[in-house]
Design goal:
heterodimer; A: 111 residues; mainly beta; 11 strands; 61% strand; B: 113 residues; 4-stranded antiparallel sheet; globular
Chain lengths: 111, 113
C-alpha cells in the first residue's frame, strides 16, 4: 500500500454532524489527494495538497475542507455531513514523476 | 474540460478469453494515460501507463496503446484468468504538477472458470 494508512476504515454518522477522515503516509511525498468513489462516477478529486499548509480544490470540493499541518498527514473534514456525502473516500500520494498510490479507503455512511 | 469515457460494464468472460475494455478521452494538450485496477475491498493499483502518443503500456499480460488520432487507450489481454476479476479504471492526468487524475466510471470484469 506504499505506506498509506486511512482511518477510520468504516464510519456511520448522522446528518449534520462533523466528520474527519485521516490519511497518514510514511513515504514523505509532497503531493497528497482525497478522492471519492461513487457508482457510475469513478473517482472524483475533492481536494489535494502540494505541501504543508498548501492545498487546493478539486472537482467536487463543496462541503469539504482539508488541512495539512505535517508532511505525513492529510485530513479531510465534512463540516456538516449530508446523505449525498455517503461514499467511499480514498487518499492517494504521488507526484509529477511517480504514479499515484492509493490507500484502502474509508467507507462513510451518512444516515 | 478533460473527460474519460469507458465501455459500460459489467463484463463477464470465460477463462482464457480475449479481453478488450474500451476507453476514449477528451483533453487539451498532451495528457498521460493510465489504467488502474481495483480488487475487492482494496484501493486502486496502477496497472499500466503511457505518457505520449504511440506509447504502449504493458504489465501482467495487459496492454494499451496511446492513440492520439482516435483519442483512445483501450485495454487488452490475450487470455484472461479468474484472478483478473476486478474493476478497471481508465484515467488521464492534466498538465505538469500535481497528478490530478480524471477517471472513467470503471468497468467491472468477472472471469468465470
Amino acid at each position: 500500500d506504499a505506506g498509506i494508512t486511512q482511518s477510520p476504515r468504516h464510519k456511520v454518522t448522522e446528518t449534520g454532524t462533523p466528520v474527519t477522515l485521516r490519511c497518514h503516509q510514511t513515504e514523505n511525498h509532497r503531493y497528497m489527494y482525497w478522492y471519492r468513489q461513487d457508482p457510475g462516477h469513478g473517482l472524483r478529486l475533492i481536494h489535494y495538497s502540494y505541501g504543508v499548509k498548501d492545498t487546493d480544490k478539486g472537482e467536487v470540493s463543496d462541503g469539504y475542507s482539508v488541512s495539512r499541518s505535517k508532511t505525513e498527514d492529510f485530513l479531510l473534514t465534512l463540516e456538516s455531513a449530508t446523505s449525498s456525502q455517503t461514499s467511499v473516500y480514498f487518499c492517494a500520494i504521488g507526484g509529477v514523476r511517480s504514479p499515484l498510490h492509493f490507500g484502502n479507503g474509508t467507507r462513510l455512511t451518512v444516515t | 474540460g478533460n473527460s474519460v469515457t469507458q465501455m459500460e460494464g459489467p463484463v463477464t468472460l470465460s477463462e482464457e478469453a480475449f479481453l478488450t475494455i474500451n476507453c476514449t478521452y477528451t483533453a487539451t494538450g498532451y495528457p498521460s494515460l493510465f489504467w488502474y485496477v481495483q480488487y475487492p475491498g482494496e484501493g486502486l493499483q496502477l496497472l499500466l501507463k503511457a505518457t505520449k502518443a504511440d506509447d504502449k503500456g504493458s504489465n501482467k499480460g495487459f496492454e494499451a496503446t496511446y492513440r492520439k488520432e482516435t483519442t483512445s487507450f483501450h485495454l487488452e489481454k490475450g487470455s484472461v484468468q479468474v484472478s483478473d476479476s476486478a474493476v478497471y479504471f481508465c484515467a488521464l492526468s492534466g498538465p505538469q504538477g500535481a497528478q490530478k487524475l480524471v477517471f472513467g466510471q470503471g468497468t467491472r470484469l468477472t472471469i468465470n472458470p
